[in-house]
Amino acid sequence: MPAAAAPMRRLDFPEKLIQSGKGQTAQALLKRMKTLHLKLKELEQDLTEVKSLDPVRAPLINKVIMHHPDRGVKAYAACCLADLLRLYAPNAPFTAEELRDIFQFMAAQITLNLKAPPAPTRTASSKGRSTTDSQTAPAASQRITDVPYYAEYYHLLENLATIKSVVLCLDVPDWEGIMTSFFEGFVEIVRNDMSKSLIRHMRDIMIELLEESSAVPQGVMDCIITQFESRKEGDNTPAFQLIQDVCNKSHNRLLRSIYAHFSEIQHAHGRSGEATAADFDILADSHKLMITMYRYSPDLLINVIPLLEENLKVEGEVQLRQLSTKTLGTMFGMRPSVSGGVGDLAKTATGAWRSWVGRKVDKALPVRLAWVEAAGLILANQPDLRGQMEVELTDRIQDADEKVRASICRSIGRLDYETALHHLKLQTLQAVGGRMSDKKASVRSEAATTLANLWRQAFSAIEQDDSLAISQFAWIPSALLTSLMHRDVTPDTRSQTTSTFKSLILPLPTVDAIDEQVWVDRLLLVCIHLDDGGMKALERLSGLKGFRQGNLPYKAYVQTCEENNGGIIDGDEKAVKTKLDFIINAIAQQTFGDVNRAKKDLHSFAATNDPRLYKLYKACVDVQSDLKTLIKAKNELLRKIEQSHADILDTFTTLIDIASWNLINHSSIPPLIKRLQRPEGSSADQTERLTTIAYRLLGLLAKECPPMYKSHVTELVIVMGDKKNERLAEVALKGLAAVCRADPEAVPEDGRALEKAMQKAVEGTPMQAKYAARFIAFSKKTQAPGELLDDIIQLFPDYDEDKLFTYLRVLVELALSAPAAFEERSDDLMDFVLKEVMFKASPSNDDDSQDEWVQEEDLEILDRAKLLGLRICTHRALGLARHPDAIKAAKPTFDLLASVFTNEGQVNEQTGEGGKARHHLKLRAALCSLKLAHAKGYDKAMEWDFFESVAATLQETVFHVRNHFLQKLAEVLPLQRLSPRWGVLPVLVAKDPAHENVQLAASIMRTVVRTAASCTTEERIDRVEMPLARLLLILSHHPDLEEERTPIKEIAKFVEFFADCVATRDNISLLFSIAAKLKTVKDPMQDDSSNLYRMSEVAQIVLQNRATTHNWPLSSYPGPIRLPRVGFHNFHSNAEAEANYRTTFLSADAQDWLKVSGRRSGNVAGPSRRAVARDSKSTSPKKRSTKRTKKAPSSKKKKRSRKGEDSDDEEVDEESEEDDEEGTTGAESEAASAVEEDEDAGATAVEGRGGKRGAKTKAKRAATKKKAPATKRPKKKRKSGSDDEEEMDVDVDEEGKAGDSDLTDLDA
Questions:
Q1: Composition bias, kind Basic residues: at what positions (predicted)?
Q2: What separation in angstroms does the CA of 328 have from each of 288, 351, 408, 890?
Q3: How many CA atoms within 13 Å lie on the side-chain side of 1040?
């Protein structure tokens, strides 16, 4: 049977709500209202007889109740009305006007009574007390549940939300106002201490109103937009959270209104065509609002995305495109706080994504900048888009505008460490590294700072030997350092990068946290990941390189400031001021981009005449200052300058950063020795590398800056006898030898030190023996070197082959350091060296390899000993350089070197050295000749044939021979200590098949030109322009030219190379005159000088073509031209010379070949990327075979100034002693370091030895009139973002506009 229907219930409330008399009191009415509320609350919908409710329906909406002053009466009335609507549902028992009043009444009760009370306003009373503006107002800290009739208001909201009777208000007049009042009221009353259920009821009411309304009232939109506009980062108010929840639940109902809101603003203020600054502000605010909405309610903007996409293509409205690019890009890169339909915007709005990506090449700079900024956000937050963004950013890092390039570097720098480590490609970071050589300072600074910051964050991981961190970031210090060595690096760039490196990579510790071991360990960690170029750059940046030569003017500056005495000079005023001006000019030119400002500030500092400032500055640049002293002095100096001379603070901050010993100093030595004694690393490999670097740095300190060891002599004496750690003993001996030689007062008094050194000299390793011998030579016991030599002589008869190198190393050292003791025993010593070493048959005579190179340690023992034998002979000659009969005494040495050259690397025809040994012997002979040339007497004694034999080393078939000799030239030529004729040698590699050699040679030539600028005019001409005459003389002796097998055009490339390095508008006339002058002299070494005259005409044509190409004036040189005496003789008469000058020696064909020679301005000092394999036989130049007897240097010598010769010979002794290091790899001069790592797209292919390779084939083809097979030249592509890239890939016209670029205004 079906269940019986539940009986209908009636309202049991017989009383009248509104009564007169005693029942009219507020308390009585309140009681009746409460009773009615409880009875209505108990009734259930659909189980109540609605007619029983009629008696209370009308009284509840009576003005007496709805306007009653008691809040309790009104609270119960609102609840009762809500219950009536529930019980009468679905038909409301009220008219539309009555319903309007009811909902307005309900909204008012909720808003007024649940609103948080304002904070009390306090006013001071006469007694110091405070009173509130209302004694009846609830306390500001009152909890929501303490609000009177809170339960009734909760019931009201719950009723409206669950029964959804609130939607009845949408059918009454002024429903927009009622709906708005609910929204505004709820936003106003919501607070943190409200229960979640109460807030949920308010949210449901608002959602229901939005869903059921026919339109969204403007007041509601204003309420929503106000909350988004007032949203502050990190301030998640309950009101905003409520609106956010409502928008996310009812976004479909708001789409049209949101679109209308933004569309109206865009058209009114963004596309008006006459937008003002105020319009732009309004537009910018609207875009900020979009971003906020997207972050918290992304689905609201579904219809707005196409509007932004359309804005990207608006022509002529740059500001609108800029804002839309920034806004849309920010949305692409943002992670909304809630997921929604447009959460992955790039996938859902593919058209907008493509349009936005296209803005990377917008012609408007602000648009491109906005794109880059947003792209960085995408790179950080969107893993799915990261790959594409990396490609796009790497592409645009070569943008024509510096601001874009800098912005890209900055955007990558904002990435967090984990993202950069795991999600960023190494190529992207390397592209940023390429910008460190950018032409603009802002780009360089951003690139360097970005990479340095990333390395700083990765330091701990690199220290722990994390392979991923090492591969991703460990290269950064090397890149920073290498960027300092580029050819065209400016002082401004150098100071910027130096500051970045020293502040982020190797910063000084703070005063209160000085730990020298930690500081040095960080340096070692950086060094173990540096490449060879980076390590050399670090050595130069540290201030060590150049210190021994006195090339650092920083200490001399403060000394001269003290002499200047604020302008009140006691001595020679003119000399002091001239010296001060010279030093200030040198510092400003080397260190600062703004030279004039730097000079002004340096003069201002000198004018202060503040002894305290001078003392602090001295402490910063003093080589004896320890780490703590340096830090305190630097901080105090800069603080005092800021207080009293703020205008020079920037200049001196940069100067102190560069001039102070803040990378390696006096305090570094004990920690380095400790790491050599007790290495610590995260792995065995890291430990070994740390030890190697510590060994190298200690050796560098001994070689370049011996004074740093002065206070560590005792410690060095202790460790020099270490038998277990050979490298530690070696660097200790090296340090002792260096400091004792530099400062005789530092020689230890303890005789045990000398005993240990004597023992190491005969029992230690070869390198230990070398430095022990040097220490002995400079010890206070003058007989010690002789005693050591006597001991070695006694060991000769029964010497152990394993100790042969040890004995020879001692002889190499003492021949130079103690020449008197050596010469006393020279008969026995040289007899052993020549008979037992040099003239002894080599066991490698069966080695017939021609072009193979091996390391020196891989040679036969006797062959290695012969290399040392050449050094012994050379050092003996240098030790006798001051002797009156020096030339006679050195003749056997010159004969020995000439024999090596004549016999193609063999000591003589009987010794029979093999091919590998011959390469080393030829190289060593050339190096020894170069060392001897430092003494003027020996240099003059070298005949021209001997000089050409040395020069021929640069055209040997083995790359390593040419490269090692060239690197040695890079060390010595810029110092201007050799005679000018040696300056022509680098030009002889112009056609070297290894492009690296060509670049290094060009760098040497340019460095020579730069360093010669400070010479007198006559000396500068002799060193810069006059080598052209010597070059043409050497080329005229070329065997290919003699046999007429090589086209003149190929020989002309040497002249072109010389012009590329030397020729300028100012000296082109002089060079042309020098070339022409050669036709008025004769070559004394040739019976027929026609080859010299042909080369003269070749040079004239090349120089004339070069002048035409550059529009340089080619006028007659006004001054006299004096050709070198060696190699050129005058005609017997002027008439004969004049007739020869007017004769043409080049054939018509040759002149035709030369029409284009010299018109190409070659960038020969480009990057160092080897064009061919170093040991490839097919590309090695063929050494000319000549048996022409080498003449020994003449014993005749002219009288010369003893003073000048002594001075030069002292320089030889200083310079040559360190040349005995194992191997000759690594150029240490600025020229060698300046070779860039960029690729010269315009450089022609190089060949070997003046084009001899293939000459016969060419001659045959010419004779048979056959054409050579055509070959295609591969196009060289520029590597995007490479370290060497300095030019932009966009042409820029005079007005700074990109011409023929890839920037477009709008998408096609």
A1: 1180-1202, 1251-1279
A2: 11, 12, 18, 81
A3: 23
Contact in structure between 1278 and 1241 (CB atoms under 8 Å): yes
* Distance, CA of 1051 to chain centre: 41
- Residue pair 601/656 in contact (Cβ under 8 Å)? The answer is no
Burial class of 1182 by CB neighbour count within 10 A (0 to 12, 13 to 18, 19+):
middle
* Helix ranges restricted to H, 334-483: 345-348, 350-358, 365-381, 383-396, 402-413, 417-422, 426-434, 441-463, 467-473, 476-483
Whether 596 shows a pLDDT value over 50: the answer reads: yes
**CB 814, CB 821: distance < 8 Å:** yes
Looking at residue 1042, its pLDDT comes to 52
Helices (H), 504-553: 516-527, 532-541
Give the pLDDT band (50/70/90) at residue 821. Answer: very high
The residue assigned the tokens 């570094």 is 668
3-state secondary structure of 669: helix
Q: Which amino acid is at 548?
A: R
CA distance 517 to 673: 11
Instruction: Tell me: pLDDT of 781 over 90.
Output: no
Q: How far, CA to CA in Å, does 1264 sit from each of 631, 1049, 1269, 1271?
A: 78, 20, 14, 20
**pLDDT over 50 at 389, yes or no:** yes
Distance CA 106, CA 112 (A): 10
Q: CA triplet 701, 707, 713: central angle to 5 degrees? A: 90
Check if the beta carbon of residue 889 is closer than 8 Å to that of residue 882. no
Q: Exposed/middle/buried for 828, CB within 10 Å: 0-12, 13-18, 19+?
A: middle
pLDDT given at position 183: 94
531, amino acid identity: D
Instruction: Please name the amino acid found at residue 304.
Output: V
SS3 1081: strand
- Break the chain down into helix, strand, coil percent, rounded to 5: 65, 0, 35
Q: What is the pLDDT of residue 141?
A: 54
Helix (H, G, I), strand (E, B) or coil at 362: strand
Angle at 802 between CA 797 and CA 805, to 5 degrees: 85
Q: How far apart are CA 296 and CA 335, in angstroms?
A: 9
Q: Where are the beta strands (DSSP E) in 934-1039?
A: none
Instruction: Specify the 3-state DSSP secondary structure of 603.
Output: helix
Whether the CA torsion 1105, 1108, 1111, 1114 is positive or negative: it is: positive
pLDDT tens for each residue of 833-888: 999 999 998 888 877 777 788 898 888 999 999 999 999 999 999 999 988 889 99
Q: How far apart are the C-alpha atoms of 1012 and 1024, rounded to whole Å? A: 7
> What CA dihedral angle connects 1224, 1225, 1228 and 1233, to 10 degrees?
150
Identify any residues that bridge with 232 across adjacent strands, giving them in sequence order.
Answer: 235
The C-alpha atoms of residue 366 and residue 403 are separated, in whole angstroms, by 10
What is the four-CA torsion angle of 1079, 1085, 1091, 1096, rounded to 10 degrees? Answer: -30
Q: What does the DSSP 8-state code read for residue 791?
A: H
Task: Give me the amino acid identity at 1007.
Answer: T
Quick one: pLDDT at residue 1252?
Answer: 36
The 3-class SS string of 808-832 reads HHHHHHHHHHCHHHHHHCHHHHHHH
In 10 A of CB 637, how many CB atoms? 23
For residue range 231-272, list pLDDT tens digits in order.
876 678 899 999 999 999 998 999 999 999 999 888 888 765
The identity of residue 1091, as a single letter, is: N
Question: Which residues on neighbouring strands pair with residue 235, listed in sequence order?
Answer: 232
| Mean of per-residue pLDDT scores for the chain | 82
Per-residue pLDDT, 370: 93
Q: Which long-range contacts (CB under 8 A, 24 or more apart) does 1184-1189 make?
A: 1184/952, 1184/955, 1184/1039, 1184/1249, 1184/1252, 1185/904, 1186/1039, 1187/902, 1188/902, 1188/945, 1189/902
H-only helix segments in 382-440: 383-396, 402-413, 417-422, 426-434
